[in-house]
Every structure is written in C-alpha cells, then in structure tokens.
Write a structure and sequence with these properties.
Elements: E1 2-6, H1 10-23, E2 26-30, H2 33-42, E3 47-51, H3 59-68, E4 75-79, H4 84-93, E5 97-100, H5 105-122, E6 127-130, E7 133-136, E8 142-144, E9 147-149, H6 153-164, H7 172-180, H8 190-203, E10 211-214, E11 218-221
Parallel strand pairs: 1-2, 1-3, 3-4, 4-5
Antiparallel strand pairs: 6-7, 7-8, 8-9, 10-11
Length: 222
C-alpha cells in the first residue's frame, strides 16, 4: 500500500510518515500543493492525506481537481479548522474523511484502514490469488498449484488476511487484532505458532516460499 502525504509542516509530515512506514506502508511526501497535486494526478497511490492550508495551492482545490478528472483516489483531509462548516466544505470538495488537528496518529491509521477496506469491497473478487496460491471466498477452497489444502478456520482467516495484504509487511500485533479480533500478550507466541503451521501447509512442497518472516517487523506474503 502506498500513501501520499501532502503536508507543509515538516514535523507533522515526519511524524505521520514514520507511523505509516512502521505499519508497512510505502510513503511519498509532498510539502506544497503544487507538487502534491502533480503527484496525486499521476496516480499510483492507494490513499492520500491532504492538508487544507498549503503553500502554492490549497488542499481543497487539489481534491476538486482529482474528482473533476475522474480520479477515485481515497482522500482524508487534515486541517486545523475543525468546525462543522469546514468539514462540510472538505466533504463537498470530494474528500472521503476529515480529521481535525491536533489528531491521534492511531486514529488516522484506523481511518485509512477503514477507507481502504471500503475501497477493496467495491472491487471485491470472489477469488484471491498470489502466485499459484488461490483462495475461493465463496466455497472457502484453498489450492496451491491446483492441489487442495486443508486449513483450519483460524488458518484460513490468517491466510485470507495475508493474501489481502500481499506484499505488505504486517506486524504480530496487527495480525492479532485483525484475525483474532482482540489482543493477546504481545510476547505470546500464538502468532508464530499459527504462522508456522500455515507455512507448513502452504510452502512445504513448493519451490517458492510465499510466507516470509521480516525480522523485527512481522510477516509478508508474496
């Protein structure tokens, strides 16, 4: 996942970019509205976080141009203006969400994830594919190179989450929250144990290993 941050305050931009990178996102930062608009219009991003008050060009005009050109890039507005009228202007310009400064970076991350989930549902496919690994979301059938794999329900949920985030490093804590639905002791080895079992079924007889450990960060499928 690639996030575009258009923010002129260097401290805010660094703080937000660091949080997204730690979560496994790729990040591009533009410090003014002119370069930000050019980047957004070029495409290649999954979500944009745009400040309203920017040098050279304001954030709302960028959003309006994106929508006028037919771009559906999800946008979250960041602004020091937190009143209702300002939020209405942002949403009417075409923003998908609006967050007032000062803000919690955890909330920003959650809002981005929610927007990405909604965007994914719009283009939902009934089959997930990563290389020769396939998951049928209707029949719950999983195959690798055409061979059916027997997975327990929790293994299926874990694999589905990894496949939906293919190429992205996901942390143990994120997996616990998204797959188990609540938090364990972060030092518990429940994730490692389940990933090990899943890897035994997915990668054991394959030349290319799909489930990889990124030491100090988490796991990535692809």
């Amino acid at each position: 996942m690639h996030v575009l941050i258009i923010e002129d305050d260097a401290r805010t931009a660094e703080f937000v970019a660091g949080a997204f990178r730690q979560t496994g996102y790729a990040v591009t930062h533009c410090a003014d509205g002119e370069s930000g608009a050019a980047a957004a219009l070029c495409g290649g991003y999954d979500v944009a976080i745009i400040d309203v008050m920017l040098p050279k060009r304001d954030g709302l005009s960028i959003i309006r141009e994106l929508r006028a050109s037919g771009k559906t890039l999800p946008v979250i507005v960041l602004s020091a203006r937190g009143n209702v009228d300002a939020k209405i202007l942002g949403l009417e310009a075409g923003a998908d969400d609006y967050l007032s400064k000062p803000f919690s970076v955890a909330e920003l991350l959650a809002r981005v994830q929610a927007i990405l989930r909604r965007s994914a549902r719009k283009t939902e496919t009934s089959v997930l594919k990563v290389g020769d690994l396939e998951m049928d979301l209707v029949s719950h059938r999983v195959t690798r190179a055409g061979e059916k794999l027997d997975l327990q329900p929790l293994e299926y949920s874990l694999l589905e989450y990894l496949m939906r985030n293919k190429g992205r490093v996901v942390s143990k804590n994120t997996i616990l929250e998204r797959v188990w639905g609540y938090n364990f002791d972060p030092h518990a080895n429940v994730v490692e144990a389940r990933v090990y079992r899943l890897r035994e079924k997915i990668d054991r007889n394959a030349d290319k290993k799909l489930i990889n450990t990124v030491r100090g960060f988490g796991y990535v499928l692809g």
